[in-house]
Amino acid sequence: MNTILQAVAFAADKHRNQRRKDAEASPYINHPITLANVLANEGNVADEAVLVAALLHDTIEDTQTTREELASRFGETVARIVTEVTDDKALPKAERKRLQVAHAAQISDQAKLVKLADKISNLRDIAARPPADWSAGRQREYFDWAHAVVAGLRGVHPALEAVFDAAYAAKPAA
């Protein structure tokens, strides 16, 4: 558990100046903590590397953190999982989204768990506290894209997939 607390502290420091896109501009750290909570408490996932990677999943993508830094502090397995779920920000957004769908089936089972928890968290957040500047249409588009990503993750954890399906059922109406 000490490693999990170290990961929370590391992620909190790295994301300290970031906010979510909701109207309240919630602290960003709430998001990775939610992923770990979904995995541990709704999915009964006990794999420490998966829980640590969930806490750190956006550090390479959204902060100045490097893969090497994660490997040195949290081990090669955590660094590999985080790298597997990290988008290449040098690519256009549409291409990054396309690649998430295309690569979902090829990532490791550990990375699939993190990606599945990420989509569950995002759908719940959009349904409850949508980004301030997102129309209902854009919210629906995100739900449908997340559904396409999760299609490639199916089979990794049926209980969490059911949690995703329940979150997807809250898709905003047309």
From TrEMBL:
SMART domains: HDc. Coiled coil: none annotated. Its cofactor is Mn(2+). Keywords: Hydrolase, Manganese, Metal-binding. One of its GO terms (molecular function) is metal ion binding. Residues 28-123 form the HD domain. Pfam families: HD_4. It comes from the Bacteria. SUPFAM superfamilies: HD-domain/PDEase-like (SSF109604). PANTHER family: GUANOSINE-3',5'-BIS(DIPHOSPHATE) 3'-PYROPHOSPHOHYDROLASE MESH1 (PTHR46246). This is HD domain-containing protein. It comes from Paraburkholderia acidisoli.
